[in-house]
């Protein structure tokens, strides 16, 4: 059954989003989201540009050999990989614990409200 | 294997042409069958543009990796490490770290607020017409530069892999690649395109993994020994240190900063990457997609580090540079050295598949943007039905395909690396500020969006025109003219901050206020997924 592309919009039109936006619950979700992603984005961008600056302007330091032929530059480069993987894992676990439960609660409240008002379920699975 | 102990004989490569073509033909046949089967359920616009939103996060993540790991990543980065050592490695770090921008700031929020294209999100709470047109223009510009680079890259790859070195033969191959790509996209839509990308990503990563283990095995799984061998063959200990390519002058150091900025901020604003987030049913699956692609892409770039230094040690920079295809030949030559004609044939076929999959992804993005943003919402003013819109999209696919073939033939042999860098710089300048502002800044207005998008796009293109890549240098497009008044090859360091500034300035100077109800709707939707389109049930 093909889904008409307009239906979610039509459903959303009858929701008072400003009211939802002002609820404590939504403000909490917004705060939790921003207080994680903004500092994290700043942190990894600073760490990346610190690395680029070192590679650009501190060649001697980066060329210092640590283990056999492996130098500081290679280690810092590989640490960029490690930090990228670590931030990814951290964000996923944070979302699962702190963001998803509250987001689906708000979503169910709004969509449940729609169910009462129109007598049919909206948000994708409607006929 | 006859060639393992001896040095690589470049002339012998031509003997494997038939084998390369056979393996590539097999790939085309298998993917065609899959595309035909996948396309049987293509009925609505959501089917055609967004594969019915029916892919899982892991499938989509693999497809994103397939889309992202273009020939430039695989052949280009391996070659760059083989020739320039450490500086080539720094490319791959920028390409990977960039995914955190997509993961943290863009992917899920975009999936929750848009339907088919980037413009859906950007015009959500602003004035539809001007913002949609601007977003569509920058989408088409990015796709065009990227597409041209891939098509022209196909031409130069041919000279090495198939032994076709005359202009007419290469043009014929570009036509074949273009025609195949049109067929995939026309028949398969986003679903077919996605499957081609998934298959290609699996083959590419598997092939690279085998070669990586092989190289490591030769050096007893000792990274230090591999690096030592690379130094010995190159007879230059500096290949392990930064600066071989970018450390020459103060300008080249600044150029590297500029490139790094464009890479890190451009990825999350590439329209063909953004559009992939609409092929999954929920924001949670969009998140899963990015996680998968970060792991796959990260793993792959670790492989290229080994492959690059492996090629430097086993094949040698001089042999690579003198081979047809130059720097791009490092990975294929290493494959030939390790596994003889069969592995070379496999790697060559994967490289072709790579180009095919990436151009297919770009074409469907450009076609969707034209049909959905310009035709349906601006020309037909939202009155076109979905069937007409898809019909327009299919026609656009043919037009874009023909343009890509012609452009590819004309650009064949040109310095094309800058086209990819330009695509990233344009994406980061024209798209990213508006994406970030409209998702996170309540006060942001239409005027800010329009100033930022046109300002970023214009600045990036004008700076490129007056840069050394177009005129004045040994590798410039126009060697005899000298109008390179901008010293850097990459415009990012100027155009990206400028676009952010213009977005802010346009907003604070705007007397109009945007509708707070739309802002509330966008914010609630983006964070909770209320009203987002789910999977299409067939």
Task: Give me a quick take on this structure.
The complex is a heterodimer of chains A (127) and B (538). With 127 residues, chain A is mainly alpha-helical.
* DSSP summary, beta strand count of chain A: 2
Uncertain residue ranges of chain B: 1-7
What is the CATH domain class of chain B?
Answer: Mainly Alpha
The structural class of chain A is mainly alpha
N-end to C-end Cα span of chain B: 51 Å
Biggest sheet of chain A, in brief?
2 strands, antiparallel
Describe this structure in words.
The complex is a heterodimer of chains A (127) and B (538). By secondary structure, chain A is mostly helical. Chain A has five helices and two strands; from the N terminus they run H-H-H-H-E-E-H. Chain A has one domain. Chain A has a two-stranded antiparallel sheet. The longest helix of chain A is centred in the C-terminal third of the chain and has 47 residues. Chain B is mainly alpha-helical and 538 residues long. In chain B, 74% of the residues lie in helices and 0% in strands. Chain B is globular, with a radius of gyration of 23 Å. Chain B: It is found in: Cell membrane.
Mind sketching the topology for me?
The complex is a heterodimer of chains A (127) and B (538).
Chain A: H1 7-13, H2 17-22, H3 24-57, H4 59-62, E1 65-67, E2 70-71, H5 72-118
Antiparallel strand pairs in A: 1-2
Helix pairs in contact in A: 3-5
Chain B: H1 17-38, H2 45-50, H3 57-68, H4 71-84, H5 86-113, H6 118-122, H7 128-161, H8 167-218, H9 223-234, H10 250-266, H11 271-276, H12 283-314, H13 317-322, H14 330-379, H15 386-411, H16 417-440, H17 446-465, H18 492-508, H19 516-528
């Amino acid at each position: 059954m093909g889904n008409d592309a307009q239906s979610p919009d039509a459903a959303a039109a009858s929701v008072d989003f400003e009211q939802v936006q002002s609820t404590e619950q939504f403000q909490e979700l917004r705060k939790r989201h921003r207080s994680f992603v903004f500092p994290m984005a700043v942190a990894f961008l600073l760490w990346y540009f610190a690395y680029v600056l070192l590679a650009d302007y501190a060649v001697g330091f980066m060329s210092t050999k640590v283990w056999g032929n492996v130098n500081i530059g290679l280690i810092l480069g590989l640490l960029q990989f490690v930090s990228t993987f670590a931030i990814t894992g951290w964000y996923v676990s944070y979302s699962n614990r702190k963001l998803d439960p509250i987001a689906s609660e708000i979503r169910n409240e709004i969509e449940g409200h729609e169910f009462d008002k129109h007598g049919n379920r909206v948000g994708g699975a409607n006929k | 294997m006859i060639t393992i102990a001896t040095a690589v004989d470049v002339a012998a490569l031509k003997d494997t042409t038939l084998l390369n073509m056979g393996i590539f033909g097999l790939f085309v046949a298998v993917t065609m069958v899959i595309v035909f089967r996948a396309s049987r359920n293509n009925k609505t616009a959501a089917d055609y543009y967004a594969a019915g939103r029916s892919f899982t996060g892991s499938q989509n993540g693999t497809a994103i990796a397939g889309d992202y790991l273009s020939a430039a990543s695989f052949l280009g980065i391996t070659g760059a490490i083989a020739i320039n050592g450490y500086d080539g490695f720094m490319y791959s770090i920028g390409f990977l770290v960039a995914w955190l921008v997509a993961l943290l700031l863009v992917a899920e929020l975009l999936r929750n607020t848009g339907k088919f294209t980037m413009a859906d999100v950007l015009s959500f709470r602003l004035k539809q017409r001007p913002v949609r047109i601007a977003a569509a223009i920058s989408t088409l510009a990015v796709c065009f530069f990227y597409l041209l680079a891939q098509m022209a890259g196909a031409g130069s790859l041919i000279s090495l892999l198939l032994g076709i070195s005359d202009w007419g033969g290469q043009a014929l191959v570009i036509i074949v690649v273009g025609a195949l790509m049109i067929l995939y996209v026309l028949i398969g839509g986003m679903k077919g395109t996605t499957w081609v990308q998934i298959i290609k990503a699996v083959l590419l990563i598997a092939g690279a993994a085998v070669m990586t283990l092989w190289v490591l095995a030769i050096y007893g799984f000792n990274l230090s020994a591999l690096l030592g061998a690379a130094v010995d063959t190159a007879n230059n200990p500096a290949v392990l240190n930064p600066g071989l390519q970018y450390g020459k002058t103060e300008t080249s150091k600044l150029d590297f900063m500029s490139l790094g900025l464009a890479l890190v901020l451009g990825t999350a604003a590439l329209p063909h990457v953004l559009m992939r987030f609409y092929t999954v049913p929920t924001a949670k699956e969009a998140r899963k997609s990015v996680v998968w692609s970060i792991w796959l892409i990260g793993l792959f770039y670790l492989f290229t580090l080994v492959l690059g230094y492996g090629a430097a040690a086993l094949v040698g920079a001089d042999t690579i540079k003198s081979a047809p295809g130059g720097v791009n030949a490092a990975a294929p030559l290493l494959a030939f050295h390790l596994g003889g004609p069969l592995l070379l044939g496999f790697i060559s076929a994967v490289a072709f598949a790579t180009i095919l999959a990436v151009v297919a992804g770009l074409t469907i993005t450009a076609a969707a943007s034209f049909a959905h943003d310009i035709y349906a919402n601006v020309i037909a003013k939202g009155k076109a039905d979905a069937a007409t819109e898809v019909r327009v999209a299919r026609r656009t696919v043919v037009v874009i395909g023909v343009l890509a073939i012609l452009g590819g033939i004309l650009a064949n042999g040109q310095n094309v690396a800058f086209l990819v860098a330009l695509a990233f710089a344009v994406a980061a300048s024209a798209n990213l500020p508006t994406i970030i502002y409209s998702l996170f800044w309540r006060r942001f207005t239409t005027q800010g969006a329009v100033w930022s998008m046109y300002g970023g796009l214009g600045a990036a293109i004008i700076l490129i025109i007056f840069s050394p890549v177009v005129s004045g240098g040994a590798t410039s497009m126009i060697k005899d003219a000298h109008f390179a008044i901008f010293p850097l090859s990459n415009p990012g360091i100027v155009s990206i901050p400028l676009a952010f500034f213009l977005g802010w300035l346009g907003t604070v100077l705007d007397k109009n206020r945007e509708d707070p109800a739309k802002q509330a709707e966008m914010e609630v939707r983006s964070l909770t997924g209320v009203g987002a389109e789910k999977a299409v049930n067939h």
